[in-house]
Amino acid sequence: MGVPKDTLFRSAEMSLTQLYIANEIGREVVSALGELGEVQFRDLNSETSAFQKTFTKEIRRLDNVERQLRYFKAQIEKQSLPMRPQHDFPNILSAPSASEIDELAERSETLEQRITSLNESYETLKKRE
Fold first, then answer.
1. Separation CA 74–CA 111 (nearest Å)
2. What is the pLDDT of residue 27?
3. Host H or E run for residue 36
4. What is the pTM of this model?
5. CA 22 to chain centroid
């Protein structure tokens, strides 16, 4: 009996295709292909170190946003604040656009500064008591 066509096993029938995508639309194309869940990507520049790749700056920026989101979650849990469940948010698995990522990065930077300032003010007030 053969392997079903929609399987994730390595023995499933596959074809190797090479795509040439312009940098301007690369993110949107990769996002759309990723959402299909039918594509596996191979790094053709694996011999290049991570610091030499063109997207290193963006990866570092997103790592910082991820760190900030973990910080927000820790602060929310520290204060025992209720959080809305994930299923309240539509399209949680769809990839955000570049402008949405930029907006999130800016907002998270501002919020981190505000929360840090509030925490410092709170600690100062506690010391005065």
1. 14
2. 80
3. helix 23-36
4. 0.66
5. 22
